[in-house]
Automatic annotation (TrEMBL):
<dbReference type="GO" id="GO:0046872">
    <property type="term" value="F:metal ion binding"/>
</dbReference>
<dbReference type="Pfam" id="PF13631">
    <property type="entry name" value="Cytochrom_B_N_2"/>
</dbReference>
<keyword id="KW-0349">Heme</keyword>
<keyword id="KW-0249">Electron transport</keyword>
<keyword id="KW-0479">Metal-binding</keyword>
<keyword id="KW-1133">Transmembrane helix</keyword>
<keyword id="KW-0472">Membrane</keyword>
<keyword id="KW-1278">Translocase</keyword>
<feature type="transmembrane region" description="Helical">
    <location>
        <begin position="419"/>
        <end position="436"/>
    </location>
</feature>
<feature type="transmembrane region" description="Helical">
    <location>
        <begin position="380"/>
        <end position="399"/>
    </location>
</feature>
<feature type="domain" description="Cytochrome b/b6 N-terminal region profile">
    <location>
        <begin position="22"/>
        <end position="248"/>
    </location>
</feature>
<protein>
    <recommendedName>
        <fullName>Cytochrome bc1 complex cytochrome b subunit</fullName>
        <ecNumber>7.1.1.8</ecNumber>
    </recommendedName>
</protein>
<dbReference type="GO" id="GO:0008121">
    <property type="term" value="F:quinol-cytochrome-c reductase activity"/>
</dbReference>
<dbReference type="GO" id="GO:0005886">
    <property type="term" value="C:plasma membrane"/>
</dbReference>
<feature type="transmembrane region" description="Helical">
    <location>
        <begin position="50"/>
        <end position="74"/>
    </location>
</feature>
<feature type="transmembrane region" description="Helical">
    <location>
        <begin position="216"/>
        <end position="241"/>
    </location>
</feature>
<dbReference type="InterPro" id="IPR027387">
    <property type="entry name" value="Cytb/b6-like_sf"/>
</dbReference>
């Protein structure tokens, strides 16, 4: 007989792989098994436009990583020093420590110039990605209930990204960024009553003061990124909490998500895409020089850079100021610079309208349901036209922000450009709205024809009596569903103004306004009726050409 013994349970567990033992240890303290079970198999739809949000996230991570590296070598001080570094053209030039340390990063720190340029390019791509991502969310109606709060988070990320970029490119204290800071100080001074106090606080005295680089540095690396990091986390949590939106298609409803699981499919694709984004940004930074401060020189209050332009995302605000007439009025002994203050108010109103739009549309439509299926932009012509009108206004003011460069590069009169922007600011969005709406209605008509008659095949057939027709291929059930699944809203009406007892009901002004706006959104001429089942059957039974 042979004696056999069974190893204690503890010894058998000790033979488990090291990774499993570590996971068991962590689960006993953090409960990661239940967390992973609940979230790692979460389904995400697969569409190329969803990568826009990933580009924003990955560029933000790249900004953080490169920013940490740059903070190790940057000196946020405006103390004046004499330069004796390796860049010969600047030898003996008086400059701030901030500018001198930026030169050292560019020419003496190993990889410093590449990291600087990756940081700057990633910032531009982050804001551009946010811009396009928000437009995708807007045009497809992804901001509707329950995602209004997430739209606000995304909007705040966009705005904070703009101001983080502004404080960032102001840090080197070069002549270009100093000109932009001077412009900003003038805008702050135009604010009635409190403008002077804000300027003195921000700059530590009369411009340029001695503290603004250090204060911008704290804002740039601590305050704004901290808020943005919290917003990014909150944004992602809400994306997980609310099911991901998806484009219309067979089997896709407001109660399910058709796609791939987060683990391993989506995570593998996302990880590869991160390195692709990082590689592209690094390649662009290695090839294309951006913000060459050594060719611009240090900031001096008595000098200004020719052709000074802000980064593109600030061109909207600068364009408004450049084309505004230089109006001033005296009020109670105070000079109000309306030529700067009015553009600031317009800029704030436009941003405010963007932030509140989900709530405005919900109030107009009266739709309080949850929406997880996206709209095709053509099926919401009024909303799509509003979005294109806003982009048109943005691009026109961007031309105003660079009016001097347009004038010199295309040999145009700067006054002609200014008047073009002034007129275009009001006329351009209206024209864009009308044209876009008509295009959307035309696309709706084409979809209706396609549903009824099928897709044009290019095959010409001659009938027995001599008539030539084009053979149409019938659409698949999947295509028919995609083209006909959208809802067609009816405008909200004021309702009867007299009750059943003949007593006249007082109609509130807000109720009348809502009815008028709803009629503008969904009234006659704003949507093409979908083909009915009877029309489709009549065509299919041979009463139409196929």
């Amino acid at each position: 007989m042979s004696n056999t013994t069974t190893a204690p349970a503890d010894e058998q567990r000790g033979k488990a792989p090291a990774g499993e033992r570590v996971a068991d240890w962590a689960d006993g303290r953090l409960g990661i098994y239940s967390l992973a079970k609940a979230n790692l198999r979460k389904v995400f739809p697969d569409h190329w436009s969803f990568m826009l949000g990933e580009i924003c996230l990955y560029s933000f991570i790249i900004i953080i990583l490169t920013g940490v590296y740059l903070t190790l070598f940057f000196h946020p001080s405006m103390n004046e020093v004499e330069y004796h570094g390796v860049y010969e053209p600047m030898q003996g030039v008086l400059m701030s420590e901030a500018y001198a340390s930026t030169l050292d990063i560019s020419f003496e720190v190993r990889g410093g110039l590449l990291i600087r340029q990756i940081h700057h390019w990633a910032a531009l791509i982050f804001v551009a990605g946010m811009f396009v991502h928000m437009m995708r969310v807007f045009f497809t109606g992804a901001f509707r209930k329950p995602r209004e709060i997430n739209w606000l988070f995304g909007f705040l990320l966009f705005v904070l990204g703009m101001f983080t970029g502004f404080t960032g490119y102001s840090l080197p204290d070069d002549l270009l960024s100093g000109t932009g800071v001077r412009f900003t100080q003038g805008a702050i001074l135009s604010v009635p009553i409190v403008g002077t106090y804000i300027s003195m606080f921000l700059f530590g005295g009369e411009f340029p003061g001695t503290d603004f680089v250090a204060r911008f540095y704290s804002i740039h690396i601590l305050l704004l990124p901290g808020i943005m990091l919290g917003l990014v986390v909150a944004h992602l949590i809400l994306v997980f909490y609310h099911k991901h939106t998806q484009f219309p298609g067979p089997g896709r409803t407001n109660k399910n998500v058709v796609g791939m699981p987060l683990m391993p499919v989506y995570m593998a694709k996302a990880g590869g895409f991160f390195f692709l984004v990082f590689g592209v940004i690094a390649a662009v930074a290695a090839i294309a020089t951006i913000n060459p401060i050594w060719g611009i020189g240090p900031y001096r209050p008595d000098m200004v850079g020719t052709g000074a332009q802000p980064d593109w995302y600030m061109g909207f605000a600068e364009g408004l100021v450049r084309v505004m007439p230089g109006w001033e009025i005296n009020f109670l002994g105070h000079t109000l610079v309306l030529g700067v203050f009015i553009p600031l108010v317009v800029f704030g109103l436009v941003l405010g309208a963007m932030a509140l739009y989900p709530f405005i549309e919900s109030w107009i439509t009266g739709d309080k349901r949850e929406h997880h299926i996206l709209d095709r932009p053509r099926n919401a012509p009024t909303r799509t036209a509003l979005g294109v009108a806003w982009i048109t206004m943005y691009m026109i003011t961007l031309v105003g922000g660079g009016n001097d460069l347009w004038a010199t590069h295309f040999h145009l009169s700067i006054n002609a450009i200014t008047w073009f922007v002034r007129i275009g600011f009001f006329a351009g969005p209206v024209i864009a709205f009308i044209v876009t709406k008509r295009i959307c209605l035309g696309l709706q008509r084409r979809d209706a024809e396609k549903v009824l008659h099928g897709r044009e095949s290019g095959i010409i057939k001659r009938l027995p009596h001599g008539e030539f027709i084009e053979v149409h291929e019938p659409l698949s059930q999947e295509q028919l569903h995609t083209l006909t699944q959208h809802e067609q809203y009816k405008p909200v009406e004021v309702g009867p103004t007299v009750d059943e007892n003949g007593v006249e009901r007082k109609v509130k002004g807000s109720e009348k306004l809502r009815a008028k706006l709803s009629n503008a959104y969904f009234g006659e001429g704003t949507q093409i009726p979908k083909p009915t089942t009877e029309e489709y059957r009549e065509i299919q039974e041979g009463h139409g050409h196929h």
